[in-house]
Amino acid sequence: MSDTSLNIYLAQLNLTVGDIKGNTKKIIQSISDIESKGNADVIIFPELSISSYPPEDLLLRPAFNEYILSALDQVIAATRNIHVIIGYPVKLDDKLYNACSLINEGKIVKTYYKQHLPNYGVFDEKRYFTAGSETCLFEIKGTIAALSICEDIWVAEPIQNAASAGAKIMFNINASPYHKNKLIEREKMISDRARNSNMYVVYTNLVGGQDELVFDGNSLVVNNQGEIVFHTPQFEEGLFNVHLDIQQSKVKTKTTSSNSDLAEEENIYNALVLGVRDYVRKNKFSGALIGLSGGIDSALTLSVAVDALGAENVEVLIMPSRYTANMSNEDACLQAKWLGVNYEIISIEQPFESFLDVLKPRFKDLPGDITEENIQARCRGILLMAASNKSGKLVLTTGNKSEMAVGYATLYGDMAGGYAPLKDVWKTLVYKLALWRNTKQPVIPERVISRAPSAELRHDQIDQDSLPDYDILDSVLEQYIELDIPPEKIIKNGYDADVVYKIIRLVDINEYKRRQAAPGVRITERAFGRDRRYPITSGYIEK
Q1: From 26, 125, 136, 150, the catalytic residue
Q2: pLDDT of residue 1
Q3: Distance (Å, whole) CA 53 – CA 526
Q4: b/e per residue, 179-218, with b = 16+ CB within 10 A?
Q5: Is the dihedral of CA 449, 453, 456, 461 positive or negative?
Q6: Do residues 13 and 45 lie in contact, with contact meaning Cβ atoms separated by under 8 Å?
Q7: Known catalytic membership, residue 427
Q8: Of 256, 312, 421, 514, which one has the greatest count of Cβ atoms within 10 A?
């Protein structure tokens, strides 16, 4: 290794928002581990590492920002024979900045303030931060380098300004959340920036789940020709080493394949697993509890939960009613046995009958309708929440994005729970994920995948009694919700006008349900919640 070679460690860490003490301990331990190797030049941490991302309105609390500065002092004191690049929020003259500092020999050498503050989708940085404006350069082993933060690399100007000032390498720290196809988009963008500026880019990303968001890691090193010469594993925490010789355009450490080569189903499934694991663990639940119906949604949810938490930390309640088919009970029990989870069968017939008896004077001779169906769902919700209270396990709801879009769910029934793994997963994708998971190991009975989906809340019920075929439903929903395509254009794309307007009406009138739904893993660019903010009370009708 030549004297001009840089020995760099990418600290792709799983941090927790607000856990300043825990994050700082992990950061200092990482510095200590790398310094003990004796030959490292740089360790680069993700964006806002000390607070983790996104801290949201914690940033508005004076004590929070004071605690950040105290933690930063600890990191500075722990840094000696290595250059540390780390992100944190900092308040200066009553202005808050998203900062990145270079630390060496027990002091801050340089500090950069994020210039481009994203304010779209899940991002809300202009609510908190003031934008910086200055290019930040430093020299390391004869090479001029620059600092930048996340969104700055998505804009051409910061890296071009650094190149014009003589920089040969850009260190870019990130908290870039996952959504499907994000990796391909991100890799292309960074490659273009590196090639067009004739600079190396060292890109370090956060990993882990934070409420709805999942950060996928996938940290990269790209050479000045725009070639990806190193990347870290996806969805995996670690300290990853790469040797760069900018002077001789050499990279000692290379990887053989890209995470973008993985199947879309595998990436999405892994994101769901990480999101569930971190939500349960970071919120200190003892495990997960699931109502297993024998249907595809609860089957996939159980599979994700077991992969995330281990079978010993997952429990199942099977809650049949008078309308539950024998095959549903059989398949639910079979899957629970396959996955090795504890399960219990509790019939809802007794509480259902009790509710009907209590309500009989009020209902008088009114015919049965969706009211009785919802009572069954709410009986199950009560049982699950009671079991959750006693066990300390978090109830995972099992509804998918298609159902939540059109309100095919019961408030305080099947919507009762703390986290919704499939909240951003279309029904058609649920089937694809189930099939993909079974290619690794059969964990979902084939009959669960092949039979017609049903809520089983009345005799001979199937979903398509109330909803269009899921291929049609999901296509219309995706166009309307994720792509903002107006109904007349959806109709021109080959869909029946009555069906389109029925679906759109269901979406519009069910915002009140979605607002009360549990948070869930975000895997698209337009998830319900942070991405799509519509009023509950609205007189607007799209025609």
Answers
A1: 150
A2: 46
A3: 19
A4: bbebbeebbeebbebbbebebbbbbbbbbbbbbbbbbbbb
A5: negative
A6: yes
A7: no
A8: 421
**Sign of CA pseudo-dihedral 237, 241, 247, 248:** negative
Residue whose structure tokens are 């760069």: 244
Domains of the chain: 6-257 (3.60.110.10), 266-465+511-515 (3.40.50.620)
* Sign of the CA dihedral running 430, 436, 439, 440: negative
**What was the pLDDT predicted at 357?**
94
Provide the pLDDT for residue 95: 96
Residue carrying the six token digits 């109904």:
487
Which residues partner with 163 through β-bridges? none
pLDDT reported for residue 250 = 62
How far apart are alpha carbons 41 and 48 in whole angstroms? 21
Give me the catalytic one of 47, 456, 478, 511.
Answer: 47
Q: How far is CA 380 from the centre of its chain?
A: 28
Q: Compute the distance between CA of residue 225 and CA of residue 194 in angstroms, rounded to an integer.
A: 7
Q: What is the DSSP string of 67-125?
A: HHHHHHHHHHHH--SSEEEEEEEEEETTEEEEEEEEEETTEEEEEEE-S----STT--G
Residue 128 φ/ψ, nearest 5 degrees:
-115, -45
Among candidates 11, 13, 91, which has minimal Cα distance to 43?
11
pLDDT at 452 (0 to 100): 78
Q: In the chain, helix, strand, coil percent, each to 5?
A: 40, 20, 40
- What is the crossing angle of helices 370-391 and 349-363, to 10°? 130
Q: Please confirm, yes or no, whether 35 is among the known catalytic residues.
A: no
462-493 burial, b at 16+ Cβ within 10 Å, e below that, comes to: ebeeebbebebbbbbbbbbbbeeeebeebbee
DSSP helix/strand/coil, 146: strand
Identify the pLDDT of residue 456: 64
**Own/partner pairs, 73-77, CB within 8 angstroms, 24+ separation:** 74/24, 74/28, 75/24, 75/27, 75/28, 75/31, 75/50, 75/103, 76/103, 76/106, 76/107, 76/108, 77/106
Single-letter code of the amino acid located at 285: F
Contact 260, 218 (CB under 8 A): no
- The one catalytic residue among 114, 182, 401, 427: 114
- Positions in the chain short of pLDDT 50: 1, 256
Helix (H, G, I), strand (E, B) or coil at 6: strand
Q: Which residue is it, tokens 């893993």?
A: 521
The burial class, CB within 10 Å (0-12 / 13-18 / 19+), for 106 is exposed
Task: Report d(CA 202, CA 221) in Å as an integer.
Answer: 5
The string of pLDDT tens digits covering residues 135-187 is 999 999 989 999 999 999 999 999 999 999 999 999 999 999 999 989 999 99
Amino acid at 204: T
| Residue 150 is among the residues annotated as catalytic for this protein | yes
pLDDT score, position 256: 45
Whose structure tokens read 């809340």? 457
* The residue to which tokens 């190797």 are assigned: 37
